Amino acid sequence: MTRNLTTLASTLAAAALLAACSTPVSLNEVPVETRTPTAGAADGAGAGGKGAGAASQSQVATVQAGSGSAAGIDAALAATGRVVYFDYDSFVVRDDGKAVIDAHAKALVANRGRKMVVEGHTDERGGREYNLALGQKRAMAVSRALTLLGAQDGQLESVSFGKERPAASGSDEASWAKNRRAELKDTK
To answer: pTM of this prediction?
Structure first.
């Protein structure tokens, strides 16, 4: 009888430990979306609708391989930058980050030997584990957007630094907004 109680207590303790380590960040959510509704979404036939005239909410543009010279692509990368910013507690790619992603996707499509690391970062608020998970989801959201535009999985690596490498010091909204980001860095 004592052995059964010990086993039960051990099982309950393990379950409690696992529950305490869980993160509220769901890993099954779709990270790439637009916040601008399309005409089909406004008339009730949104992305989930199958009726006639239903428009896809995706506004992803097609990328033509080989379009543009290497110098032109590098100039586009310099013009758009290498950082995609996120809203608080979110890993949804905002509309203002789509130009950055598009330019990098074109560069990756034009040069299949090019590789990038996508680094996910968060602001200082929240626990270490939570921020590492959120940073990873941000990096993966940008990587997924790049692959949707034609980049190959083998060209991308997603890593998270959570709140460990802030871009701006300070504990105000302006600093936090600069720290909620994903950075795209060439590795080759």
So the answer is: 0.63
